[in-house]
Amino acid sequence: MTGVPGPPSSTAEPRMNQISSISKRKFLILLIIVCQPLITGCAKKVYPETSFKNISTQAEKQKLDDFINAGIEKVIDTNDVTPDEIIKNALQYLGVPHCMGGTTMKCMDCSGLLVAVFASQGIQLPHNSEEQARYGKIITGIADLRKGDMVFFIKSYKTSRFITHSGIFLGDNKFIHTSSTEGVTITSLDDPWWNERYLFGTRVFK
């Protein structure tokens, strides 16, 4: 009597499932490796190195990358305030002497000027140049600046901080800021000392 084939081995099905599971894991790992650069590239805005003309050393490039990766181009509510209103208020502080941490007519520092001017119009900025630079659309070229843009500089004094100075662009290649020697003053961006320390501007007004 011919024997009747018995059922498949009880271990065959689990073994196939195990192979299938391993293949799925391998596929997922491969997918992550392939897609990760694409995801990372979309997560942050990429600026060509040539956009920042005063960034030259590898250490400066690393600091710039760290700054960008920590968050840039944050939106701030300007409450329908115009650049002219900001500039008009800023000019009232001309001649106010410099002091670290100040934000009043008695004395102020560079970021304190921006804090006071914008706060007078109901706009809140942090009292720190590097943190202020995280707000608004980045404008890398001096020729592309508009009245009311904030402007930022590096290497204006010895510190571990990357961005060390801030001001407000007035037009005609001039900006108002607090100088450590002259207090609140107006300076040309053609001034070689400031020109070679310019990093970028940011535009918070539409």
Task: Give a verbal description of the structure.
This protein is an alpha+beta fold and 206 residues long. Helix content is 34%, strand content 17%. The protein contains six helices and six strands; from the N terminus they run αααααβββββαβ. The protein has helices at 12-43, 58-69, 83-91, 110-119, 129-132, 192-195, and strands at residues 137-139, 150-154, 163-171, 174-179, 183-188, 198-203. A six-stranded antiparallel sheet has the order 1-6-2-3-4-5. Helix 3 crosses helix 4. The protein starts with 11 loop residues before the first helix and ends with a strand.
**Beta-strand share of residues:** 15-25%
The dominant shape is globular
Spatial order of strands in the largest sheet: 1-6-2-3-4-5
Mean pLDDT level: 86
Number of helices: 6
Radius of gyration equals 28 Å
Residue runs with pLDDT of under 50 for 5 or more positions: 31-43
Helix-strand sequence = HHHHHEEEEEHE
Total E-strand runs: 6
Largest sheet data: 6 strands, antiparallel
Specify the structural class: alpha+beta
- Distance, first to last CA: 93 Å
- Helix content estimate: 25-40%
Characteristic terms for this protein:
206 residues, alpha+beta, six-stranded antiparallel sheet, 17% strand
